From TrEMBL:
The keyword Hydrolase applies. It holds the Pfam family HD. Residues 69-251 form the HD domain. GO terms for molecular function: dGTPase activity. The lineage of its organism: Bacteria, Pseudomonadati, Pseudomonadota, Gammaproteobacteria, Vibrionales. The keyword Hydrolase applies. This is Deoxyguanosinetriphosphate triphosphohydrolase. PROSITE patterns: HD (PS51831). Keywords: Hydrolase.
Length: 480
């Protein structure tokens, strides 16, 4: 069983594997513990700012009060930090025991949870989960021209592309400063970022339904496991907390955004929850308490002279307060009660939310979000447009990527050269690195996913429009 001294390892990979000159860094801690510095590094990183123009649920949303991926990430970080404070201060002895004597859990745990909450979606491509689907579909459709060995271990990294694996790659390799250690985060933070502690080739043999790292980062992952006492298939205990905060954020707050967009009303939501409880969990006190509290507050607001829109909005705000409070309490209690199981390499727990008292409320809210928000025709239309943009842009960028290392004819055409130059210099440097041990087909495919997943929604559309016009002109000239 892992111990907290290893799980909260504040060493950085550069301190272990860097050259002497790389290890000599300027002291900029200024009173911060190492894991607190991780949060700050993530906050100031360029990919974090790009989340402001990435879809949470509603693509290309014009209403500024509806959440973007950045808003969502800050909210997850806030929830995670708050839970971390409670775990470290209220339940320190129960959770950390004697191991807490050698580490400052009161600072490390909230900071770590805030850091991974902020970082957890950094690798997600434009247009939300449709972006992931589009990338995977492109590789399945074009596998003959991309992969020389269709059954190679690495193919699933792309045909089953996952933003979680891209997040890990982004933070460990692609954010280049002056070396190859990425943001050089602590082992504790990197270990807890692995939401799915398996790679794509071993995913089918594990309890996890997704992969959390690519084969290109496998050596880094094994190093992290060795330093933290973890192993393949075993999550860091605090990863469960971050995942639960993600569940809270998108179940409750996506419902709020669905109402804010006018796709449903406050009363629609309460009706849904009451029907869900009657059908699935008549004895569930959490749903009953949240609905009763929200109804009482709504009745108070009705006595005031509010417009229907104000009444709807204010009632939803208070619903959010009650729902989050109940779900957070459930997560804290579940973590405290299940800590021994969560630290065990043989645990069968895959979700902290599912074993908490708020499980049914969260499940009911996700169902509401799906039926009234995600599947609304306006959302589906924009998601389809995003899917098509990504698919077509990948085909154009591929012209500049495929054969680039050998300077093949297509990649060296004027269009191929221009398309290649539109890819981030950081990403191109990693691709061209002579020390890159991955096969060339893998490197080419990965440069394509690095490029696309790093784009914002609006930049992807802008680049598509620009390249599409040039691509069309080039093809017309070649056919004449």
């Amino acid at each position: 069983m892992s111990n907290w001294n290893n799980l909260l390892n504040s060493l950085r990979r550069k301190e272990v594997w860097g050259t002497e000159s790389q290890k000599q860094t300027t002291n900029t801690a200024f009173g911060r513990v190492e894991i607190e510095r991780d949060y700050d590094r993530i906050l100031f990183a360029t990919p974090t700012r790009r989340l402001a123009d990435k879809t949470q649920v509603f693509p290309l949303e014009q209403n500024d009060s509806v959440r973007t991926r950045l808003t969502h990430s800050h909210e997850v970080a806030n929830l995670a930090r708050g839970i971390g404070m409670r775990l470290a201060f209220e339940y320190k002895e129960d959770i950390f025991g004697d191991e807490a004597k050698d580490i400052c859990v009161e600072r490390d745990v909230p900071a770590l949870l805030a850091a991974i909450g902020l970082a957890h979606d950094l690798g997600n491509p434009p247009f939300g989960h449709q972006g992931e689907s589009a990338i995977g579909h492109w590789f399945k459709t074009n596998s003959d021209k991309v992969f020389t060995e269709k059954n190679a271990d690495y193919v699933k990294d792309f045909t089953e592309f996952d933003g979680n694996s891209q997040t890990f790659r982004l933070l460990t390799k692609l954010q280049i400063l002056n070396d190859s250690f990425g943001l050089n985060l602590t082992y504790a933070t990197l270990a807890s970022l692995l939401k799915y502690p398996v790679c794509s080739k071993s995913k089918d043999d594990a309890i996890w339904d997704k992969h959390g790292y690519f084969l290109s980062e496998e050596e880094i992952v094994h190093d992290i496991w060795e330093q933290t006492g973890l192993q393949k298939g075993v999550r860091h205990p605090l990863t469960y907390v971050m995942e639960a905060c993600d569940d809270i954020a998108y179940s409750v707050l996506d419902a709020e955004d669905t109402v804010k967009k006018g796709l449903a009303s406050f009363y629609d939501l309460l009706d849904h929850l009451e029907c869900w409880q009657a059908e699935h969990c008549p004895e569930d006190n959490v749903i009953a308490n949240v609905v009763a509290s929200a109804k009482n507050k709504n009745a108070e607001y009705k006595k005031e002279k509010l417009s229907p829109a104000e009444l709807n909005d204010m009632s939803m705000q208070m619903f959010r307060v009650y729902a989050i409070a109940n779900l957070v309490n459930g997560v804290v209690s579940a973590f405290k009660e299940k800590i021994t199981e969560l630290k065990s390499p043989n645990t069968e727990i895959t979700s902290l939310m599912k074993v908490s008292e708020g499980a049914q409320l969260c499940k009911a809210l996700k169902k509401f979000d799906k039926t009234r928000g995600y599947q609304h025709k306006s959302v589906l239309k924009l998601e389809l447009e995003g899917f098509n943009y990504i698919h077509r842009l990948m085909s154009m960028l591929w012209v500049g990527i495929h054969g680039r290392l050998s300077e093949s004819e297509n990649s060296m055409t004027p269009f191929g050269k221009y398309a290649y130059q539109k890819i981030s210099e950081n990403y191109r440097r990693v691709f061209e690195d002579k020390n890159n041990k991955m096969p060339i087909p893998y490197r080419e495919a990965q440069l394509l996913t690095d490029a696309v997943s790093g784009m914002t929604d609006s930049y992807l559309i802008s680049l598509y429009d620009e390249l599409n016009a040039l691509y069309h002109d080039a093809n017309c000239k070649n056919s004449n």
